[in-house]
Amino acid sequence: MLPSTEFALLRRLATEQSAARVPSIVAAVVRNGDLLWSGARGFVDGEAPDDDTQYRLGSISKTLVAVLVMRLRDEGRLELNDPLDKHVPGTSFGSSTIAQLLSHTGGLTSESPGSWWERSVGGDWAALQASLAQDALKNRPGSSFHYSNVGYGVLGELVARHRGTSWLDALRAEILAPLGMSRTTPHPEGRRANGYAVHPFADLVLPEPSPDAGAMAPAGQLWSTITDLARWTAFIGGDTGDVLRPDTMAEMRAVATVDDGNAWTSGYGLGLQLVRHQGRRLAGHTGSMPGFLAATMIDPDTGTGGLALANTTSGPAILSLVVDLITTADEREPKLPAEWRPSEVDRSLLALTGLWHWGPTPYLLRLIPGGMFDLSPVANGRASRFRPAGPDEWLGLDGYYSGETLRVGRASDGTPTHLDLATFIFTRTPYDPSAPIPGGVDESGWHA
């Protein structure tokens, strides 16, 4: 980035480290999958931390577990509306759905019963399940947002049962290895920052423990680095490689619940925190464990993301820091539009493009990258994108027609005659009498 931009980013980071008295902190800005800038302040073992220094991710771990669950959904092994009992039978909260667990609307207690799990050695799944035999549901499932670390311990068990291995082994094989995230581990390896609590009234630090969380590990066990977390930040923005379909990630970023009412500055999707700031919507997650704070956010519209890792229990406004890094980068160096260039398309689909009419309302159907269609009104109306779903079928990805199927009607000679979209019939001319218009077309036709 420009030297002036890099200095502005470093100054914001340095101010946070100094004012909040953070032993060490690292941060970065990514755009379109590239690590554009990284910075560090403070010390780890007497030296400045770098992009390969491990810090604990805390609840950012949940985002990786959520992707494992969505992969199972995309493979047809589960549905998001399935009750938990269909996949992990025998719990006292089996009526909560997979989607509700992902979005923290399943009504589960926030923390596992007994000693505070973040500072205690964790037991296995049987012990966790037994501890939740009574009073596990605090709210009616689906009624409201209630953040639940327990819910992600449960989702880790769900992944393990479907894969026939531990959630960690599934994570390594399905996500970490394909994305090259070799420095993301359940326990620290190589150079790492020690976790500290900073005395509130003196410049003193106290080491924090970092035990294995056992069955609660999916809620916050992982350690990582700037380099690996930058790759994950780009992943959340849509750079998913072969690990997840981009439209599935977009589904995860969609709002499932809002946790601050009418203000709607923060909400939750399927495993992702959502933040609204100055007209933009960011997606990612924060994380905290004793001795550590972390945050990653990205704006999918600009492709710009920010991330930060610190080794302190409390103090810095790490989410605000990350949001400020994104804002500074986009304001000082706004993203340039991608250069347009011709690309090869399935020529047989060209016959479907052009002008269609829903009743008297004109729409344009355009081919867009990925073999997808964009259906948009010429003036006002409902617009959606569609991806291929089968012969002459496309699945709606967003807008009013999200999840709906667009089907092509053809004449006996194969000529496209109409589009059928959720019972709405689109024709080449307004109310084409030869098409199956619901209610038919007046025999007298158009007249003055």
UniProtKB/TrEMBL annotation:
GO molecular function terms listed in the Swiss-Prot or TrEMBL record: hydrolase activity
Entry keyword Zinc: no
Domain Beta-lactamase-related, by residue range, is 11-315
The reply on keyword Hydrolase is: yes
- Key words of the record: Hydrolase
Q: Which InterPro entries match?
A: AmpC-like, Beta-lactam-related, Beta-lactam/transpept-like, DUF7586
Q: What is this protein called?
A: Serine hydrolase
Organism superkingdom: Bacteria
Q: Where is the DUF7586 domain?
A: 345-428
